[in-house]
Amino acid sequence: MKIKVTGRLFLRFLLILIVTAFFVYPFWWMIVNSLNTSAQVFGKPTFLPVSWRWENYKEIFQIQPFGRHLFNSILVALVGTFGNILVSAFSGYAFARLRFPGRQVLFILLLTALMMPIEVIIIPLFFQMRDWGFNDSLKPLMLIPIFGAQGAFSAFMFRQFFITIPKELEEAARLDGLGSFGIFWRIMLPIAGPVISATAILAFLAAWNTYLEPLVFTSSLNNFTLPLSLNNFNDVYGQPQWNLQMAATTVSILPIMLVYLFFQEKVTDAMVNSGLKG
Amino acid sequence: MKKKSGMNRQRRVEALTGYAFVTPQLIGFVLLVLIPLINVFIYSFHNKNMLYGTNIFTGWGNYEKLLNDKLFWKTLGNTFRFSILLVPLNLVLSFLLSLYLGEQLFGSRYIRTVIFLPVVTSGVAWAIVWKYLLQSGTAGPINYCLSKIGITGPNWLTDKNWAMISVVINRVLKNLGTNVLIFLGAVMNMPRDVIEAARLDGASEWQVIKRVKLPLLMPTVLMVTIVTLIGSMRVFDTIRLMTDGGPEGSTMVLVYYIYHQAFKMFNTGYASAIAVILFLIVLILTIIQWTLRKKVSHYED
Questions:
Q1: How far is A27 from chain B (nearest CA, A)?
Q2: DSSP letter at B107?
Q3: pTM of the predicted model, to two decimals?
């Protein structure tokens, strides 16, 4: 009996060890080597940095406009998220609560955007952005999170939420003299807090992490976002400067990771929901 | 009579407000989703080249070319190979892990937290880090550790027998967390009394999983399978950063080929035909998913 219990305990620790090796160690290795010299990156892995070379974090801003890339990523993600929430909250509310001819058809049409992989429409989008004079700018990277699949998903989430709100709330507000806009803006939006935060988390993560769109729509170095920037730390011979790449990658991951660790339940709930519906 | 026209007016105002509220989103949808989708079909019937600016109608020309394009069939095959390796591995691991986490034993919270770390990380960052972990010789930490226990690790990313496996492992680890938590939600909702009854009847833990838990979770399993499958059809960033389609095109997948044809070779018409194929694959899978969902929610009711 005792052997059995010890055996189980051992297996549990083994599982925790394996999970740590696959899901935590890569990040630890990244941070350790962000503080090494390029030559120390490979070979025998060490638990702590060998040279504690903090200058790496200064050099990533000097070797290419990394500060600009960081700013671009923040800007694109913030504008994309804000626009996404604003546009889809309005439409989600209308699809849930306002009666107008064609409501069902229009909503189903919008839902087709949910399944549309950006990879399918990226070529026509490229030409369209070029015709609008938006190529090699951040504008496509802001517009796509607002109106693409992510926007349709947010509208869907808002609709599902507003449908559950009792009608009496609107009727009372109407008797108090509020119009449709006032009801939406002053009553409905404030109670939609949980949906706003969930959809905002998803929209922000999607905009922050996206790779294909900046690859296609931006070409000059100053318009890069972080995902493009990370793979661009090469020396004059085109060889990657591993330590700097790790420092830059750490900078790109750390803010997201801190937000995740602080708001873990919210983030995982939002992601799980989108995994089920998206 | 007067009251009725008042009602009508209110109706009209409500409808107008409704249209005003949905218009921004619908305009964006038409411009950024619907028109591009129509255009990708139109382009696919044209001999369109971005560099020379040519745009000649060729009918089914691009599709006939696809039929004879060895590289296209290779990328299609690679895409399915990627999915066939990824989906079962992802499903089995996330299913078993969610059953374990459902018991809420020591360490469960920690595991739940850390398996989600790669999910919030960008695919680019996750791929870059793993590219280094998998360096060949004894340079990468993984092969270094293997060499300490007397195993010569393979050239993970440059050997064409291993490159696909490396990419699959990377992708499984990246997305495992989502599926684990989806399963966990279903596991926590399983009727406890049924499982207890099976245990009291003397069923072994394995029998409980196979005969009771798996059937109860089957609707969720089907949903997750399709969603994971659709996701695997769209893989791009991991491949581009870890292997760049190589070695010898062994990890070249559909989206990579679309990107390559459109933005490297500038054959935008031809690339559009490949994009249409991707669209049709995703469309079929989505229709299956939506039919299943209807059945699942029916079953839940």
A1: 8
A2: T
A3: 0.91
